[in-house]
Structures
1.
Amino acid sequence: MKILVAAKRVPDPDTRIRVRSDGAGIATEGVRFALNPFDAIALEAAIRLKEQGGASEIVVVGIDAETGVETLRAGLAMGADRAVLVREVAPLDPFAVAKLLAAVCRREQPQLILMGKQAIDDDCNQTGQMLAARLGIGQATFVSRLDLGPDQSTARCGRETDSGTETVTVTLPAVVTVDLRLNEPRYVTALGILRAKKKPIQEVTPAELGVDPTPRTRLLHLAPAPRRKAGVRVQSVDELLARLRDEARVV
Ligand code: AMP
């Protein structure tokens, strides 16, 4: 079984993010980038399936400028076998990403597509669903438990929902988007980094894939969240109720 894992480069979750003064995006100077944490979970799931004998090859795919190579190398160092970088410098929306990933899937023919439930930079949570729709295959989203069926024609997925875990079985090939509790991704080892240097990264352009990646959505303005006012300590429940009624006007 071939598994394709989508890998997006995002600002490192520990980096302090500043909004550009023109509101056109975030200031990237001095910002460290890393593999989207949910994609690291997706990749860990793929590696575990391979270690258990359930997969023969893991391909990581990123859509990015040439800087995306670094993120893909991190994925290769974790344990993916090879990588595909779709080179695109222009900003993309989930629909454009889904179109590009669908074109790569048509070439690669993976039996399982694993991706994050969301990218932590735009928090869209749309790409996996759009990809499954474009490929006309099934999907299981927010997955925190994943087991392949005995003949690898299905995957049994536990989905995180507001009311608990829902278990669904999807026929493969399918798209599975992963949630936080699926696993804890392994650390990259020095040996993994050395091995990654020899693993192939194929580069393609949207034109070579026959895809027009022009986004259908436009970022109008990005603004930092307003600073929260300092809290006040109240002396009694009566005072709390009075403030909620007279100042906050919520009761
Ligand atoms: P989103 O819908 O933007 O929250 O992203 C959901 C998932 O789609 C991410 O966790 C990635 O697995 C995948 N994805 C989104 N953008 C890209 C990209 N530029 N390159 C590779 N994968 C991506």
Note: The chain is about 30% helix and 25% strand.
2.
Amino acid sequence: MTSDIKAALRRQRIETPSWAYGNSGTRFKVFAQRGVPRDPYEKLADAAQVHRFTGVAPTVALHIPWDKVDDYVALAAHARDLGVAVGAINTNVFQDDDYRLGSVTNPDAGVRRKALDHLLECVDIMDLTGSGTLKLWFSDGTNYPGQDDIRARQDRLAEALAAVYDRLGEGQRFLLEYKLFEPAFYMTDLPDWGAAYAHCLRLGPKARVVVDTGHHAPGTNIEFIVAFLLREGKLGGFDFNSRFYADDDLMVGAADPFQLFRIMYEVIRGGGYTDDVAFMLDQCHNIEPKIPGQIRSVMNVQEATAKALLVDRDALARAQADGDVLGANAVFMDAYDTDVRPLLAELREESGLDADPMAAYRRSGYAEKIVDERVGGTQAGWGA
Ligand code: PSV
Ligand code: MN
């Protein structure tokens, strides 16, 4: 049993986002931190540290144009030299003045064309970097009732998605991300999993839904969404983070570790604990140091996964079949209440890693090194 769990944990892969290593903040203030990367090459170097100490974070998501470079083949080679690889290519059609009234749903055909060209360019970048995943998130929506035609905007969205879908090559797919609100405050064109699912269903197997854990109304049962999408073969991955209020982008497992456990249980139960589902972080470390923030997040996902793997599924199935409400709940809670940290420490040591990735990173001197070396230049930030 323990050896099966360990084998499953050894297989785990968690993708870190390039933007987590840059400066970030809220609309009130971005706090600069010393040693922050100045370019995508340095972001990859920091991401490689997370992999070095956890052993389970071998890919890095890029965000275009934040990670725009002249030579993507060279960037991918640089990643490989560092022991990591380029992961999902995240599109960005939300930071240009032209997108005030939307990107692919904009009433202006010229703006729609510009947005679509960007999405297609991101598929070119997938070709160059060897990435198999395109992540689509649209800030599109309206602020006032009557501002635009809700249905016509769906038509425009469907048209753009179909064009991107048709451009995808062999072994490539897109993940469609929904979000309840923000930056649009009245109506969002892809507000929930149902809308994302319907678009993906029409397009075919290369289109899947991605669940960003911060993109729901408070109280939403996210594990239900996970179970449902997996059952339909439409769960493409996660953007993990945690939230207390809205889309807070805090460290995953920090606000609600029990929710993360419940999600991971449904992933495992539904056969989603495979490479077919991308486990990505989408976070910002506004006040805490970034590399340790990512290491902690990766460890939080590992802990939730270990607990989910510990659920005695046979005992649970028996209790469920018997209608034993309290018994079933006890089986579930037993797993959640188990301290899995010793198991994970043992597993790391068996894999030649330090039992305590946070302490090992601190001792490595990397944080001091980047502060000394990264002098001058412009620090990367959310949006650059
Ligand atoms: C939007 O809030 C989002 O979750 C999308 O994934 C963006 O690409 C990302 O945040 C940027 O941090
Ligand atoms: Mn996201």
Note: The chain has one domain: 11-373.
3.
Amino acid sequence: MHKSVQDIVNMKKEKKKISVITGYDYTLASLCDKAGIDVLLVGDSAGMVMLGYENTIPVTMEQMCMFTEAVSRARNNALLVADLPFMSYQASIEDAINNSGRLIKAGADAIKLEGGSIMAETISAIVDIGIPVMGHIGLQPQTTMLSQGYKVQGRTKDSAMQLIQDAKELEEAGVFSIALEMVSHEVAQIISETVSVPIIGIGSGVNCDGQVLVVQDLLGMYDKIKPKFAKRYMNLSEDIVKSLENYKNDVESSTFPAEENWFSMDPEELKKLREQIGS
Ligand code: KIV
């Protein structure tokens, strides 16, 4: 049985830190799940790391449903949360409910959407129909990026007050958790201590209730952007490129495939074949 939303909420009460990792495809998500990660997040960062877009703006519902289906086939243990992409929930509450439902039908247990107080009514409506919601405040790639670029949030008293207010309103609206992106660590700590739902930090310091990373950043597979907050646990892209160069050399020198990689005919059958074709 995989983890439930309530299990994740309880982890904060039990003072257990929550590990979250993004997942978009079957193979990597299976490994993340096997490692015991608590939450798999099908983030719209898929647009950048899987599809090569400059940002998350072009990501569609169809793409998010496809990634969610793949990850849902991979997970056995983790809770599965999927992102609503840009413009799938902002225009109307009806859009938000319909598209949340699509992600749930694709295999998600809960959805995540970006926005503070302004999204409270939408979140309440989704929660009211029974779909758990993770909020996302601080740097909001779908919109903050359009106006400000990558900028640490909550460095002044006023912006900190706004973030604390946003977190409280999301909690009141019924979120089970909040992702907090690139917020000064002092404000992240205050928010984590202020609201009862788990705060999942990314670039927001160690005092959040849990952490989330993009799996390609953690494995060293995506070089286009290297955020200061993303710890690289390995340099997989170097190993992958080396392996592919070795493969190319092996093909060119006929070292691959070798006998253990091919299949043979029955010798008697081969003899008969040669006789028949006269070779
Ligand atoms: O899309 C994503 O990967 C995210 C995380 C960075 C929180 O929203």
Note: The chain has a mean pLDDT of 96.
4.
Amino acid sequence: MSHGLPVVFRFMQYDPGTIEAKWQDRWEQDKTFYAVEDEARPKFANIQMYPYPSGVLHMGHLRNYTYVDVMTRFKRMQGFNVLAPMGWDSFGLPAENAAIDAGVHPRDFIEQQIAQMKVQLRRLGAVYDWSRELASHEPAYYRWDQWLFLQLWERGLAYKANAPVNWCPKDQTVLANEQVVEGLCERCDTPVVRRDLDQWFFKITEYADRLLPGDSDLEEWPPRVRTMQQNWIGRSEGVSFQMAIAGRDEVFDVFTTRPDTTFGMTFAVLAPEHPLVDLLLAGSEHEEAGRAFVAEVTNESDIDRLSTDRPKKGFFLGVNAVNPINGAEVPLYTADYVLMGYGTGAIMAVPGQDQRDWEFAVAHDIEIIRTVQPPEDFDGEAYTGDGVIVNSDWLDGLDKDAGIAKSIEWFESREIGTTDVKYRLRDWLISRQRYWGAPIPMISCPRCGLVPVPESELPVLHPDVEDYQPKGQSPLAAVAEFVNVDCPSCGGPAKRETDTMDTFVDSSWYFLRYSDPHNESAIFDPEKVKYWMPVDLYVGGVEHAVLHLLYARFIVKVLADMGLVTFSEPFLRMFTQGMITKDGAKMSKSKGNVVSPDPLYDYYGADAVRLYELFIGPATDDAVWTDRGVEGTFRFLKKVWRLGTEVEPVDRARAGGDRDVIAKAHRTLRKVGSDIERFHFNTAVAALMELSNTLNDYVRSDAGAERETFDQAYSMLLKMLAPLAPHMAHELWEMRGGELLANESWPDWDPDLVIEETVTMVIQISGKVRARLEVASGIAEDEAISLALSNERIVTQLDGVEPKRIIARPPKLVNIVV
Ligand code: ANZ
Ligand code: ZN
């Protein structure tokens, strides 16, 4: 910080340092935000994705913590019994890698980081029920990971299998598909390679259909997160049908979503791992070249193979396949872009309608037949849209849907194919060859095979080892006392499983444990979970939109099937915040652009920092950090302070102008309440700034501020500030003779007072006036837009055309650009 510190504070001047420490002590000592079950009050579980304890928090992190804290305080004032817990995602790769970098044992490292983070959260004024704190590296926690594993095992939902897996050469461990991002390890950005290994899986695919976001589930989730879940599960309806190989006995199945295009098949493709490829190459004249091709491709990650910006590689297998619909012989290839892990691992290729097939056909000089007539102005390559079917004999003239129906009938009646549903979702690979995770509670016995550790012997303690560096095999394998055990079943010598569990197992159920964090005899008391759960509001980063949320939803469905929970979706409402960026990049330690809150706390105080985090922009959007921003919210707080400490209202009769002030306070209240509810924090802060200006003008007016009016409006201002800038609001409230502000209820706005004048709003379509409407002068942007879009004249004018952009300048104008 370049500017100097203020020289002296006058008595009663706003001194955040003193005030903030005082209130942080008070909230903690009084356990103000600790929660007990209370049937008389509606509960509100307000939970933030528990953080990996990274130690130092920067402004990017704090945005998130501030939002959650505002909601805790706001919902509590609204009368909810709020559960506001905090825990630590302290097992797993990120923690272990950071510990290795720091040269400290992961346990010591983690405990140090947690202590440090708690200090920082306290300084922000973030309040939690610390009696419910949990950390996944503690045996009291991970024994229930192990218990959960045993339940899945018993239900046939956990299994061990040899499978091609994603291997990170740097982290020396396997990764779930979900942890591979564009071919790179999500944790360290190293290109991932494939290996065949024995691994543990959870059978999440058995829940694929139930995990698809239905029409009513996940209603209060961001649509894009819902879509990401949907796409990850990737349900496809289509047809599987059999194809023969000309002149040979072998047949293979293909899966297609477009049976209506079968007449356009000009080649067929087997995945390089398809068992027939090996068979067809064996003894053939191009065996050597074919095997070299297969070896090359199978080393590449699926993501690379599916990449759209590289040429598709293939190898002609020297035989033809027979198109069952017309008997045509088409060349049979093996190619990189067909994956063994999806569908049947074989496709009919229809370049006229499939872009991947088009590219392959062009590269290998294969015929292209269009079977769907593209529109006249179409200038692309493969045409994937709807249209009239051509070149397809008895399908000609139909459209896509009719063509699909008729071709399905054809396949089914001849028993060549059947309708089929395929999922992109694969089973969840949960074993890791790393030290810092919960040991998998299984024992391998030469006589009995895989034997679960009896529940009574949990937890399988994670042994302390000297050497926990990753080496391709779990470091636990080197601990003889850990590995060698008696078989629980036959008593003979046996060996423990030495892999540890993916940290996403820990995070798939921790939120439930907050309901009953110290239970030693069960994962939780179902009655307590019934009271607190599901989570009412879940806040976290969109980077967890696929993996963590999907796993948590899966485990909750399993627990529901076990009768332990009474709901099947864990998170009722989900909020994903935008990122804070600086110098054009996401704020992060690795980018070297982090802003630490500490000097800002010292100079401006936590309330000003919080307010700036809230004010910086719409909560869902990324926002650019500017150091000077805090200056603005600090000035606002000083103004509020002066209003509370320096103003001397006058005793006189009330007049019309006084009513305007009260009305303004009520309108602000209505707006701030609904804004906070919707995470529109920036506009809530703006509204409070406006109200403080109104009050400022009021006290300077000729008649002066009438005492009762001023007190009433100012009290409302403080209550509205209570969740946002809690320290100062509490202090001023107390100075004015109030009890603990956190215990006050959120006031109700008076409908008679918020009635406002109306103004004429103009609705334009692409700049031309199309309608006029009387609206409240304080109308919100989204309300103005929805009024405009539902206006009868506008609906008629638009005639179904999707607006490109909507520019709203409430209350005067909404311009719909088409
Ligand atoms: C012929 C066809 C014609 C296809 C057409 C699409 C469009 P989704 O929607 O993702 O399920 N396919 C099937 N198995 C495959 C595999 N193992 N690797 C790569 N591609 C595979 O995609 C289903 C479509 O993806 C299938 O339908 C198949 O190509 C291809 F105009 O068959 B289609
Ligand atoms: Zn045995």
Note: The radius of gyration is 32 Å.
